[in-house]
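Revision sheet: structure tokens.
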Amino acid sequence: MGLNWIERKNPVRLECRVEFSDYDETRDFLDRAAELAEKQDYYPDMSFGRTHVSITLSPLDDSGVISETLKHYAGLMDELAPAVQPVNETK
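Predicted:
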């Protein structure tokens, strides 16, 4: 996973925030992320502003475990944004 995903424990999830240079770049990423979601039949929680997107990937089951499948999805998200810089948020 290349976008500096952060593994959170309570509730279990993967998170990252990606910064873009302008709205067009943000919109392009969101469009490609929507296509990926349809193709994979997994819909991450996403919020965005003009030049950033925050992504949360949560397990679909109640196992409380970040599965290899979820990590693979994170990797697919990484491929959508090869030229952008990730930003880690610490809370």
